[in-house]
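$ fold --in a.seq
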Amino acid sequence: MERFPQELVHAFAGLFPWGDPYTSVWDQSEGSDLERSADEGQHNDTTGMSAMFAMMETYGGLERCLGRLSGSLMTVQDEKRQLQREFDSEVERLQAELARVTLERDQAVWKNSVLSQDLLAVREQKDRVTTARKNCKRMLVHVLGQRNEAWHEEDTLRARQVELEQQLANDEEYNENLHEEIHQLHNQLHP
């Protein structure tokens, strides 16, 4: 039956009853009676019963075929539902992963922007520090020059102080001499 489906269809085209074969009366509309074979069960004594047996076997085969097809279809549908669930869960996982990666990218872009601003501020501060350092260096050179001038002036003043001290000592000695002469003259004037 499974090997020759077309022959089976042609052989039983005119033998199938109208309605449900389990409850309807068998009526072979046309064609010759079927011959009895070894495959028929017991009590199939007449050609009508032989035809009924063949039809019932065919109907049973079709029911079994339909059952197998239904089972296969249900298995395929279950597999399809399982694959759909797996696909949906994978899509959800990928969407969550995409959202996480997008968030990380946005955070990285924001951090990069903040770091760029910080770097710009550091560069500006470095430029200000460099300018201040140059100004301090110039001021230090100027102050060192003023210090050297002050030291030179101090050295000059100290040398002048030494000269003035020597001159003062000389003047004091001269003053003492003059004082003695005044005493001598006074003594001479007033003996």
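$ fold --in b.seq
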Amino acid sequence: MGRPFLVTIPNGAGASDSESWALGANEHIMQVILIQDVNNLGGKNELVTVKSGYARNYLIPQKLAVEASASNQKVREEKLKVQAKKEAKLLAEITEVIARLKDGNLKVGAKVGTTGKIFGSVTSVQISRSIREQKGYEIDRRRIQILSDVKEVGTYKASIDFGNSNVAELEFDVVAE
């Protein structure tokens, strides 16, 4: 075995502005644009700074990231604009649905005894079915949370989580079938 040797690269010879040398460790740093979410690093279309070895040996070959070149930066900006437009359209649709759901109380039928008590209780499945039949919207039962136990005929409240911190409160009337 021979002796290890040290190669010194003069300032500006082969190193670009986006890359720099960490003193002592001889490690390159570079910027990449993430194509997919990467745990403990960042989300899709995010610009992150990582060690060049990590980028070149893992992120880029696994198609998790691309180098942050000028052309890739422009593509990223276009994708972010398109995503912002989609989110604005989705938010407008969610606002419309919330307004329609709040327009008039929802009626949920339940089997009732002679004292006005319900056999069992009203569930999110029944509320989802009532929304579909009365309002014309298909809402997943897992997004509906009933705020109190429903054990008798009356008016109650439920919240519907549409995601992205869009939550609507809905009043519903429990009526005897």
